[in-house]
Amino acid sequence: MPSPSLFFAQLFNGLALGSLLALVSAGLTIILGTLGVLNFAHGAMFMVAAYVAWWTMVATQSYVLAALAACAVLVVLGMIIERGIIQFYYSRPPEDQILVTFGIGVVLVEVIRVIFGGISHSMPVPDWGSGIVNMGFLIYPKYRVLALGIIAVALLALYLVLYRTRLGLIVRAGIEDQRMVGLLGINVKRTFLAVFALGSLAVGFAGAVYAPIIAVNPEMGEQLLVQSFVVVVIGGLGSFPGAVIGGLIAGEILTLTTMFNPAYSHVMLYLAMAVVLVLRPQGLFGVEGRE
């Protein structure tokens, strides 16, 4: 049996991973729920954000500039992808969307590989995040504790955008009935662009926050993409609360299972997804009948 200190360490690791998955999945579920686009480039976009944050941090020694640069680059990148490619695939079959977004992801990975090489890089932890925190029952890296708070604030900000602004109202209406939004005279093309940019902003900020925790390399987004889709399935398509709760559940499953047997961590995650699909096909917070 694991020691209490190991259990609490893994519990906090699960919260850290779960909060990351929640933020990444929130951007993914907004795009998927509103636009109906299966964005298989989402993991690669996370990777690009991490590289931008790492390069900016090394060049300027400013974590704030690194985070801002990652967010700005991802918003611009998202808008270019949506206007240049994705807008032509809204009415195409899902398999076409999968192929084109998967191809975009491959291109992004290879471009980063050409520019920075295939080796891993380590983003320095900012001065205010260095050191450890003694919680009495656990000694834990200070930056990871602060990262939980930073992501929590980001999720709250995203919640306010979705539930307290006109854009959020349009996004939620589009998730429920995309055709009706167009009939109400709303500029759908402009809204779709804003939605894709919002989802890109979420994954960009997630990449910047998590870059000091993991190794920055071209393959870092692949596994995260799969985990994020699992979170969307568990939480429910188009549901922001579902993305948050699903992310935390997935993070704890992965880390706590690793404590006993790392080989079964993803097996247990997929098993949890299968159970949800059997008992509640629309997900924990999804709406039955939503397309």
UniProtKB/TrEMBL annotation:
Classification via InterPro entries: ABC_transp_permease, BCAA_transport_permease
GO cellular component: plasma membrane
Pfam families: BPD_transp_2
Keywords: Amino-acid transport, Cell membrane, Membrane, Transmembrane, Transmembrane helix, Transport
TM helices/strands, residue ranges: 6-30, 37-57, 63-86, 98-123, 143-162, 192-213, 225-251, 263-281
Compartments in which it is found: Cell inner membrane
GO BP term (any one): amino acid transport
Membrane topology annotation: Multi-pass membrane protein
Primary localization: membrane
GO molecular function: transmembrane transporter activity
Family membership: Belongs to the binding-protein-dependent transport system permease family. LivHM subfamily.
Family matches, as PANTHER family: ABC TRANSPORTER ATP-BINDING PROTEIN, BRANCHED-CHAIN AMINO ACID TRANSPORT SYSTEM PERMEASE PROTEIN LIVH
UniProt name for this protein: Branched-chain amino acid ABC transporter permease
The species this protein was found in: Salinisphaera orenii MK-B5
